[in-house]
Structures are given as C-alpha cells and as structure tokens.
Specification:
The chain is built from 13 helices and 16 strands. The chain is of the alpha+beta class and 419 residues long. It folds into two domains: 302 residues, Zn peptidases (Aminopeptidase, 3-Layer(aba) Sandwich), CATH 3.40.630.10; 113 residues, Alpha-Beta Plaits. The structure holds glyoxylic acid (GLV) and manganese (II) ion (2 copies).
C-alpha cells in the first residue's frame, strides 16, 4: 500500500504548518500568504521536485505549479490540482489531497520512466477558502482571467492590503503579472480535481470513491444592519432599533427560506456586534450570508426571496439593511466525457461506480468557465465531517484514489481518439 502511506505521510508533513495563535492549540489554520501558508507552498514545491517533475514554480498569486512533460514538450497538458489554504481550525485533507494524489501519480510515472502523450500540470492553488480576504477562488480565477483587479486593494483584519501581502511574500503584486497567468484552453485536455467529499454520503454508503456530476451554485455576501445604540435599561422594548435582533431575525428567516426548497442551503457563518457592550442595545450588527443551490435558477430565487424579506424585516424594525455580494459562482455540471473517464477509472480499480453532486464549492467551478472539468470525491470518515479537525481519510482510501488517478491517465492513453 505504498501510495496510501505516502499520501498520509505527506498530509502530516503539510499539516505541521499552522498560524501562531492556532498552532499553539494544535489546530490547523493556513490562510492566504501568511508565514504558515508560504511554508506549506514551499513544502509542496519540494515534494514536486523530489517526485521528479520537470518544472516547479510559484506563480504571481502563490500557486505552486508542477509540470511533468509529455512525450513532446509541446503536447497538451492535463490540468489538475486543488487548494492548499484551509479554513480556520480546518482539516488536513480539504484541498491538499487533490494536490498530493497527482504528485504521487507523477512520481510513479517518473519511477517507471514513463512519458505520456500529454503533459501533466499540477496546481497547488494558493487560495480557495476566502478567509483572509473576501476573494474566494482568487487563485483559480487568475488562471481563467477572472481575477478581480479590486481585490489587490482589499485589506485583511489587520489593514494589510492584498498587494502588500503579495509583495511581502516576494510576489510582484501587479495586475500585469497576474493577467499573465491566464491559461489558453486550447493547450489543455481538461481539468480534473480530486477532493475529500466533505459530506456523509460516501461514508454512509460504505463507498471509498464517488464521481461528481455537478457542483452547486453559490453566492456569498457580507451584510450589516444599522439601528440605534441606546441605553439597555431605560429604552422600552417597543422603542428600540436593535440591529442585532434584526440580523437574528434575518438569519432565522434565511434558514426557513432554504428549508422550503429541496437541496438549498443558507448559512450565517459570522455574526458580530462591533464594539458592543452588555448594557447597550446593539446599534450595528455585521454578519455573512452563504447561499447555495443545485442550479443557478434555484439559487437566484433563494437569494432574491431572502433579500426581499430581509428588507421587510429591516423596515419593520426601523433599521437599515446593507448587503454586499462578495462571491458568485455558477453551478458547474461535470463535462460528460470527463465524468465518464472517472467512472471507468473507478471501475478499473474494482469499485462500484457511484455518482453524486457537490454541495461544497471547489476550484473546478472556476476552471469550468474555460475548459471541461470533472471531479472525483474520496470518502471522509467521521460521517464525512469537514471544515473541522475531525476531517479524516484512511490510507486504504488514499491508495485507491491514487490508483484511480493512474487509471484515469491509462484511460486517456488508451482512448486518444476521444480527446
Ligand atoms: C469551500 O470550502 C466551500 O465553502 O464550499
Ligand atoms: Mn474547504
Ligand atoms: Mn476544498
């Protein structure tokens, strides 16, 4: 089981880097361009070099790019990879697994001195989680030409702009350098991404692998309610403009609206009363909304209803409601031919072919806008819990995943006419 053990060991090696406040508690937090993030990227680059990639580089947004050439240097590339940043107090496999699996597959090709009719380009995407900056998928966006120029001026919670963070990390921090990362789709066969499922379906079904049929659409927003701060003891209940209660009511309404649909979800993941006091009626409340659904149409109806009702709640409570969209990703159905390649790869390693859709967002959603894509999911233990340190996979499943990735490469070689 050499692939499985290698993946587990590499995952531990990457997980040794975490940001100070979290590392002290034994927790994993790696957000964009922090010291822990830079060290993780450097380690990924070293793993790629040791594996025998022909070219390894760090690009202008911090992506770690490894190229293993095909039989000719001009042969098209299969693009693959996932992200190496994490949520705060996250798991060791979300993102990283999808970088380590193709590195193990390329190492195997190198050891067997095998060149394929196509090159393999593995990307360790620097940012997918939208934690330090409100710029979710910024790393994959750079590859599709969708990097928003306004992101460079965004500040983190310490007032550091993204451009300053880039320059501090030794990156150019210019739009020109970032624009140059855009890939020409004609030079690529397509994009495949391996990822831990982050849900219970495969675990409950006792299935090691699953083939993704589509990724759900999502919109994220930062919101604010602004009322009137006033004395908590002297202001009668019916004479208040409580910003926190308005935000709480909007949160509960979002839950009810999402429940009314099949498979829609709405989450308030951050909720604060800035500068609040125990004896002051909240004058302001900031919170986030993350709203997702299987199709763009269902998501748009969900968001539109939530916004209309939020406005009504705000008017009734005499507070102002502010809403700023910070992320919009269209649903990304898998390319059928690539989905079928994964199905054959899963069957080739002797596993049942099981198909499922993805409730989580992935780098593949962005690549979807410029080339065909399909994803493979790997079972998570602990009922698939993710964005949580309890996230886990087994070495046996990691072994099967690398074998399936190699089977996908074999399938591409065996059916060149289909490309
Ligand atoms: C990415 O992890 C997401 O929030 O789906
Ligand atoms: Mn994640
Ligand atoms: Mn992820």
């Amino acid at each position: 089981m050499h692939f499985g053990d290698t993946i587990m060991q590499w995952s531990e090696q990457l997980a040794q880097f975490s940001e100070p406040h979290w590392a002290e508690k034994g927790q994993l937090t790696v957000t964009y361009l922090t010291e822990a993030h830079i060290a993780t990227g450097r380690t990924l680059g070293a793993l790629m070099r040791e594996a025998g990639f022909d070219e390894v580089s760090t690009d202008a947004v911090g992506n770690i790019v490894g190229v293993y050439h095909g039989q000719s240097h001009s042969a098209p590339h299969l693009l693959t990879g996932s992200h190496y940043d994490t949520v705060r107090n996250g798991g060791k496999y979300d993102g990283r697994l999808g970088i380590l699996v193709p590195i193990a597959a390329v190492r195997d090709l190198v050891q067997r001195k095998q060149r394929l009719p196509f090159g393999i380009e593995v990307i360790g995407f620097a940012e997918e989680e939208g934690q330090r900056y409100r710029a979710t998928f910024l790393a994959a966006s750079a590859l599709t030409g969708a990097f928003d120029p306004a992101w460079l001026a965004q500040v983190d919670s310490d007032g550091v702009t993204m451009q300053q963070a880039m320059q501090h990390a030794g990156l150019p921090g210019t739009l020109e350098a970032i624009a140059a990362l855009k890939r020409d789709p004609t030079k690529y066969l397509g994009f495949v991404e391996v990822h831990i499922e982050q849900g219970p379906v495969l675990c409950e079904g006792a299935l090691p692998l699953g083939v993704v049929t589509s990724i759900n659409a999502g919109i994220r927003a930062t919101c604010k309610t602004i009322g009137m701060a006033a004395h908590a003891g002297t202001t009668p209940m019916l004479m208040r403009q409580d910003a926190m209660l308005a935000a709480a009511e909007i949160s509960l309404m979002s839950e009810q609206r999402a429940l009314a649909d099949a498979d829609s979800v709405a989450t308030v993941g951050q909720f604060q009363v800035p500068g609040g006091s125990i004896n002051v009626i909240p004058g302001e409340c900031s919170f986030t909304l993350d709203m997702r659904a299987p199709t763009d149409q269902q998501r748009d109806a969900l968001v539109s209803d939530i916004l209309k009702q939020a406005q009504l709640i705000a008017e009734r409570r005499q507070v102002k409601f502010e809403y700023t969209e910070v992320m919009r990703a269209a649903a990304a159905p898998s390319d059928l031919a690539w989905q079928q390649r994964w199905e054959r790869a899963v069957a080739a390693v002797g596993l049942p072919v099981f198909k499922l859709n993805s409730g989580a967002g992935h780098d593949a959603m962005k690549l979807h806008t410029s080339m065909p894509q399909a994803m493979l999911f790997v079972r998570g233990g602990n009922r698939g819990i993710s964005h949580n340190p309890l996230e886990i996979i087994t070495a046996e499943d990691a072994e099967l995943t690398v074998q399936a990735f190699i089977a996908l490469l074999d399938d591409l070689v065996a059916r060149p006419s289909e490309l």
